[in-house]
């Protein structure tokens, strides 16, 4: 009888944890010869703040920081306690990082001038998207955009540094606080996703080179507002139902967008009778997600033009948003076009 010595295979126990976010940023730093490390530092600052916010979210039910804060923001929306906490954490991290000269936040009426005239970048952010879902333990997120200032370094911040088209972004991303915490971002050279490993306190590359499906069968829309929507949107929703598409609507923009980005689908928040300009904010919601979408092969429009081509005219400007798999965005755009043509024929 032949025998052989027992040699246990420990390979499964020594799995590779992969590339950390910090190492990935260093590897990709050469893609931006103009940056000299500043952009990389901003991404690190955002990652640090997101770890702190992730901790606060996870302990919210135990530390009495859930629920309403007792005031409203510039949007007229009731601020949640975690809205305020997240805004403080991200603002503080970006201030201490020293690379940012100004911040635009959903939670602040005006531009936050950091009095750092040597800073080369402006950050626009929604510190905590979907905060109405905090108290019911549903996924929420952070959205951010990064722009290079256009006025000379060393001079005071000017409106043109802030009011830039989305196609001028140098980086954009979001953090999803869900069953796991993910940071997804682009610097204009593809989209990559990183999952947070709590025990190590690090983000690891888990979704390299994300590519959105060209088509999908998921539509995300608040159908409770259908009666207030344009006929083109109504007709598109009906066509989705006839094709047995799946309706999936979480009510957190980041969560709905993230699912559709990975699985294929479209997110729609159109203009309505009560919100004729749409509801989502251009500078720190639509622009950043549109940049990510296009870098992943998806599309984003306001129903009339490409989101990234819109020139902002107000700090908290709102816009309709149709974003997701390219074919689905093309389809809804066609329905909108047909509505316009019909109205011209039958004024």
UniProtKB/TrEMBL annotation:
<dbReference type="InterPro" id="IPR033391">
    <property type="entry name" value="FBPase_N"/>
</dbReference>
<dbReference type="GO" id="GO:0042132">
    <property type="term" value="F:fructose 1,6-bisphosphate 1-phosphatase activity"/>
</dbReference>
<keyword id="KW-0119">Carbohydrate metabolism</keyword>
<comment type="subunit">
    <text>Homotetramer.</text>
</comment>
<feature type="binding site">
    <location>
        <position position="285"/>
    </location>
    <ligand>
        <name>Mg(2+) 2</name>
    </ligand>
</feature>
<feature type="domain" description="Fructose-1-6-bisphosphatase class 1 C-terminal">
    <location>
        <begin position="213"/>
        <end position="336"/>
    </location>
</feature>
<feature type="binding site">
    <location>
        <position position="129"/>
    </location>
    <ligand>
        <name>Mg(2+) 2</name>
    </ligand>
</feature>
<feature type="binding site">
    <location>
        <position position="249"/>
    </location>
    <ligand>
        <name>substrate</name>
    </ligand>
</feature>
<keyword id="KW-0378">Hydrolase</keyword>
<keyword id="KW-0963">Cytoplasm</keyword>
<comment type="pathway">
    <text>Carbohydrate biosynthesis.</text>
</comment>
<comment type="similarity">
    <text>Belongs to the FBPase class 1 family.</text>
</comment>
<protein>
    <recommendedName>
        <fullName>Fructose-1,6-bisphosphatase class 1</fullName>
        <ecNumber>3.1.3.11</ecNumber>
    </recommendedName>
</protein>
<feature type="binding site">
    <location>
        <position position="106"/>
    </location>
    <ligand>
        <name>Mg(2+) 1</name>
    </ligand>
</feature>
<feature type="binding site">
    <location>
        <position position="126"/>
    </location>
    <ligand>
        <name>Mg(2+) 1</name>
    </ligand>
</feature>
<feature type="binding site">
    <location>
        <position position="126"/>
    </location>
    <ligand>
        <name>Mg(2+) 2</name>
    </ligand>
</feature>
<keyword id="KW-0460">Magnesium</keyword>
<dbReference type="InterPro" id="IPR000146">
    <property type="entry name" value="FBPase_class-1"/>
</dbReference>
<dbReference type="InterPro" id="IPR044015">
    <property type="entry name" value="FBPase_C_dom"/>
</dbReference>
<feature type="binding site">
    <location>
        <begin position="129"/>
        <end position="132"/>
    </location>
    <ligand>
        <name>substrate</name>
    </ligand>
</feature>
<keyword id="KW-0479">Metal-binding</keyword>
<feature type="domain" description="Fructose-1-6-bisphosphatase class I N-terminal">
    <location>
        <begin position="20"/>
        <end position="208"/>
    </location>
</feature>
<dbReference type="Pfam" id="PF00316">
    <property type="entry name" value="FBPase"/>
</dbReference>
<dbReference type="Pfam" id="PF18913">
    <property type="entry name" value="FBPase_C"/>
</dbReference>
<feature type="binding site">
    <location>
        <position position="279"/>
    </location>
    <ligand>
        <name>substrate</name>
    </ligand>
</feature>
<feature type="binding site">
    <location>
        <position position="222"/>
    </location>
    <ligand>
        <name>substrate</name>
    </ligand>
</feature>
<feature type="binding site">
    <location>
        <position position="128"/>
    </location>
    <ligand>
        <name>Mg(2+) 1</name>
    </ligand>
</feature>
<dbReference type="InterPro" id="IPR028343">
    <property type="entry name" value="FBPtase"/>
</dbReference>
